């Protein structure tokens, strides 16, 4: 029997752990799923970990990684060589974190659309509702806004 799934989340290991894990991944040929949620790996540790990841041919899922921009760049290179590797991460964070972009207010998007085309809301919906049922499908609405 061999280890296929390894959950190392919440262990708090840092660069030394990332180096050790990278070295282990170089020679591991059985591990399929690795969970690294909530550990303290810096850019230096990411680089060491990715070197081992590049040499690994069997890992298919790397899960719950809090990543930084350096990791994303190294990951892109690694995924080119290993297209079967799937990395699940919740966003860029760590030492060079960025705020996620703000979602647009849907009402503002609609209002801007109407203002640009000098339409009233009533006219906009009346143009979409060709059959006069007072119902507009989501698909029809999206098509109308994209035009």
Automatic annotation (TrEMBL):
InterPro entries: EF_hand_dom, Leu-rich_rpt, LRR-containing, LRR_dom_sf
Pfam families on file: LRR_6 (PF13516)
Domain spans labelled EF-hand: 116-147
PANTHER family in UniProt: LEUCINE RICH REPEAT FAMILY PROTEIN, LEUCINE-RICH REPEAT-CONTAINING PROTEIN 74A
Protein name (Swiss-Prot/TrEMBL): EF-hand domain-containing protein
